[in-house]
Each structure stands twice: as C-alpha cells, then as structure tokens.
C-alpha cells in the first residue's frame, strides 16, 4: 500500500502542475487585460506549481521509502498546496493527501522467495 500511496501522489502532483499552469495562463491573460485580481491568480498559480512539484518529489520518494518521513512531508506539502494554491490545485491535493496517508500507514509488500 505504500507504493500505491506514492503512485497516487505522483498522479495528483502531475494534475496539480497542469492545473497551476492553467491558472497562471488565465492570470496572465487577466493581467494583460487589466482585470482586477489577476495578480492574485498569478500568485496562487505559482504557489500551486511549487507545492505540486513537492508532491511529485515526495510521492516518488514514498514509493521506495522504508520510513514514514516522505509520507509526512507529502501530507504537509499537500495541505500547504491546498491552502496556497488555486482551487483547481486544491482539488488535486485531496488525492495527494490520501496518498500521503497510505504512505504512512500502509504496509510494504513483502516479497517471498519460492521454496525449492
């Protein structure tokens, strides 16, 4: 289950990066047309990019990790991404949070050697 948590977090992080890129694009278009609040959208987009990349990194580390540290860092970065990212990124951080919980409390698959 630890591997599944890391894979879920990787997928959520990739979707988070694409959502943050969309927010940055829309914020840039809004800034070009002098729309009020476009600067806030750009700031939220950059926050989403940062924390989505952190989710990808910690998700990859959680796949092969023996300890609980990558799972804890995954949970922290997904919560911060939900707070400092745009609403689209926040919806992508929910599966990342679930992946972090799986990475902490899931058990690593034990490979048994075949008896000869």
Q: What does the model show?
A:
The chain has 116 residues and is mainly α. The protein has one domain. The protein is built from 4 helices and no strands.
What secondary-structure arrangement, pairings included, does this model have?
Blueprint (H helix, E strand, L loop, with lengths): L1 H31 L5 H27 L4 H16 L2 H19 L11
Q: What is the helix/strand order?
A: HHHH
What fraction, in percent, of the residue positions are helical? Answer: over 70%
End-to-end separation:
28 Å
Give me the number of helical elements: 4
**Biggest beta sheet summary:** none
Tell me the Rg in angstroms: 17 Å
Beta-strand content estimate? under 5%
Overall tally of structural domains = 1
Cα shape: elongated
What quaternary form is this?
A: single chain
Kindly report the average pLDDT value: 92
Tell me how many strands there are: 0
Low-confidence runs (pLDDT<50, min 5 residues)?
A: none
Structural class by helix and strand composition: mainly alpha
